[in-house]
Specification:
The protein has 217 residues and is mainly α. It has 10 helices and no strands.
């Protein structure tokens, strides 16, 4: 729990959260390009030097809510006991555990604003893509190390991670498009639906219509 942390760590967390919340407020109100880093720092009453202790760029602070989720995912994956599970099941469990660590609706509201902002900000989209690639590589490296998969040509860990990322994106797209203010639990529900649909996607027959009649060419 946050209250169990030393005072210094709690202050650092509050400063980081203030930067995230203020950035999302200003970027949503004035547009991502309409707010300078100096203006953001002035609004939180911190120096740019302090800002760079927490974030590498404006894109980094704006996308922090989703990035926090995936960093929690990597931390969980690094310690989760495989215990006879399949790799896809292990990955999914780590992602559910990471979601459970996020602070419910406060986190969900920040993610929602961040995702909607990214939808109209190309530099945030590019930043998100690079972060996704780095996270995927880290997850694959973790799997190879923990499962003792020494063959660099073994594609199975990479494909399993890529499938999880695709499932998450499907769930996130559905979640963001919901009316009102969707919650973290809503996102978990969408994720469970997407995970359940994944095996069927691998056996979906391309030559058949929904009713089982072959499509004409």
């Amino acid at each position: 729990m946050t209250n169990a942390l030393p005072l210094r760590e709690r202050k650092k967390l509050r400063t980081r959260q203030a930067l995230i919340d203020t950035a999302l407020d200003l970027f949503t109100e004035r547009g991502f390009g309409g707010v300078t880093l100096d203006e953001l720092c002035d609004a939180v009453d911190v120096s740019k030097r302090t800002f760079f202790r927490y974030f590498a760029s404006k894109e980094d602070v704006a996308m922090a809510p989703t990035q926090d989720l995936w960093l929690a995912f990597l931390a969980d994956l690094g310690t989760r006991d495989p215990d006879g599970r399949t790799v896809p099941a292990m990955l999914q469990e780590s992602l559910y555990a990471a979601l459970a660590r996020m602070t419910a609706d406060d986190w969900a509201a920040r993610v929602l604003r961040s995702r909607r902002l990214a939808g109209r900000t190309p530099s945030m989209d590019a930043h998100g893509l690079h972060f996704c690639q780095r996270t995927s590589r880290a997850a694959v490296d973790t799997l190879r190390r923990r499962l003792d998969l020494a063959d660099p040509d073994d594609l199975r860990p990479r494909l399993a991670v890529d499938a999880l990322v695709a499932v998450f994106h499907c769930a996130m797209d559905a979640w963001v498009s919901r009316p009102g203010t969707p919650t973290r639990d809503d996102l978990v529900a969408h994720l469970r639906v997407a995970c359940a649909a994944l095996p069927g996607s691998l056996t979906l027959a391309a030559g058949l219509r929904a009713g089982g009649v072959a499509a004409s060419v």
